[in-house]
Each structure stands twice: as structure tokens, then as C-alpha cells.
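Researcher:
Attend to C-alpha cell order:
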Amino acid sequence: MVLLGPTPGVEDVDVTLVERASTLRHHAGQIAFPGGARDPGDVTLEDTALREAEEEIGLDPADVEMLGRLPSVHVEVSSFDVTAVVARWSGQHPLTPRDPAEVAAVHRVPLSVLTAAEHRVTATHPRGYTGPAFVVDDLFVWGLTAHLLDAVLDLAGWQLPWDTAVRHAVPRRFLNDSRRDRGPRPA
């Protein structure tokens, strides 16, 4: 869920990001949007997004207005099709990790910070991947999360120019994923 809300104390909009627990087998410690896989009881993808956000960060579904969906994206490394649901909320209550084994922290980052050129870079991965990334303090947002965030900024008309030639290597702590040791995936 791409969750947009008012930034407390300032005239700005923020986006909610979660920091995945460092003990997870996949994408440990990475910055992501709240969300997860569809359960059999979820009627719509919006239901999935709301259920997952409530489970992960305590978001009250009654406080959310759905704005729409981005087109589905196939993620080769996990063989998942991901559909981001865009929503807004009032920002009236704190969001905190519900299960520290899954979510280590919740970050609300103002869009004015994310769109500033000094926080935009091109991420590079040792296996050849390059793509948009955001660097804010200790947060390094890359991969699918950065692509989705970049798309939302573009669609909403919030994107500002940035120097795509500025490259940052994906931090080493994000390069350890149990899937790396399984060898090539079958076609």
C-alpha cells in the first residue's frame, strides 16, 4: 500500500514506509511499503492492502480512503505479481510495528524530502541491476519500492528533476537473501 498522509506539523504530504526486520529470510532490513500476499478471505486487492497494513503497522482501515491501483508488476526474483494500492489517511494516530519479527520500524517521509534532488540516486547492484533510489538519512529505498514510488511521483505530477548519473551501490546488508544460494530458477 502506497499510503499518503499529512506530515505532522508542516504543510506537506508524506508516504509511509516500513523497514523489514533484519531477521527475515527475504529482503531483510529493506525499506518497503506495508503490504503482503493475498489471503483466501480477501475479496479485493484493497482488502489485502488494508488487512496487511493493519497487521503490520496498526493502520485503522476506517481511516483510509482508497485512491486507486497501479498496474501489476511481475517481480522475477520472487515470481510474484505485485499490485500497489494507493491510499490516503488522516495521519491522526501513530503507526508502529505490530510484529517486530516482521517490521522493525515505520517511517513517514515527507514527499518534499523524497523529491529533493539531493535524495535521489540511481541504485546499482553487483548483478547488473540499476534503477531509481532514494537516500534519506539511514534509509536506502531501492528496487521495486523505489520504482513504485518513482511512478507515483510521476503520475501525481510531484516529480522533480534529479541527476540520474549519481550512482550509489546497493548497501551490502541488502545483498544477503536466501534465494541467492538456490541457483538459477527454473523457467
Notes: The radius of gyration is 16 Å. DSSP finds three helices and twelve strands in the chain. The longest helix spans residues 143-156.
